[in-house]
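Hey, I'm writing a tutorial for new members on how sequence and structure tokens pair up, and I'd like a real worked example in the thread rather than a made-up one. If someone can provide the structure for the chain below, I'll link this post from the tutorial.
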Amino acid sequence: MTDHAHTGVGTPGPSGPSGKAQPKSSLIYSEKFRAVIYQVVLIVTVVAIGYYLYSNTLANLAARGIQSGFGFLDVRAGFDINDSLIEYSNNSTYGQAFLVGILNTIRVAFFGIILATVLGVIMGIARLSTNWMVNKFASIYVEVLRNIPLLLHLFFLYGLLINVLPRPRDSWVLGPSIFFSNRGLKVPVMADHPIWMWVFIAMLAGAVAAYLYARRADRIQAATGNRPPTFLPSLGLIFGFGVLVWLVGGAPTEVNAPELRGFNFQGGATLRAEFLALLLGLVIYTSAFIAEIVRSGIQAVNYGQTEAAKAVGLNPGQNLRLVILPQALRVIIPPITSQYLNLTKNSSLAIAIGYPELVAVGQTALNQSGQAIEVVGIWMAVYVTLSLLTSVFMNWYNGRIALTER
């Protein structure tokens, strides 16, 4: 006789209504556990390979009597840099030389991104123009310029500036104390005074205040449907703070204007021909790609949006500014971020025309010090950092303009 009470057959078991015993869970069958194990194994492998390469490299360098480490950054550089945003001479250290190169790279990338965006947006919109001449000009601009290697752009523009523009003595006068020659563009600047630093800080504070004011206008618009004016108040906040600090600091008005002395100009600020050629080359080349991104982004917006804008009485300019572009930005921002990264990295081609950005300065330091691994490491660290900062900012902006469901 079968003991049903002992076997449990015919009665619901504790593990389910069917009476079947559930299999015991095991970590080896857990997807989360296996995912963690795979990642740990990958990290350990990468670290082990990296440590092996690092230790092996140090051993080989020591065997050949080559010093390693970043101590050379405190050694006198001994070479000149003809374009610097900070005080620098051949008595400065390698570390200061690298800082000059990094600042020059950031300067050309910053202005290059702004100008390439403006020019690219204009050309992208022009490609969709119903005006035959405007449309064809934009098409030729994009198709020709983006298919010519950037290095050729740089050689052509640099040769143009050096060979076509006159010598300093015969410079083109573009305005009061503004001269353009094959040495570059000479412009007047305000004379050194400690108040200018505080004016700059005050304008930054004004920009923050303008941002907070715009956020307040957004909240008022969301609550009432009416948006307070923001353009003129924002300008007033940014420049008003600066003017106020300038007046408190004594309102200095002394100008440092360039003057021709001997064979070249003295005084003022200089945008060298190498910098102008690099900036123009990066802007023209990158703007051709941005124009195509803008064109495709605008065409991705449903044409019904344009018809709806016409139905409510918006003119073509208002339709583009208020309806089409805000929606197209969600398509444009991700690929345009890649173009910003490309522009920053392409600035390293400046070494071909002699502009002292990061790679050019590092190359000179490498030849003199022999610290190849350290110099390459600095190059990689700087470009990775700039790329990550650009990506973080663009991802933040992309998140702000993303569609929100209500």
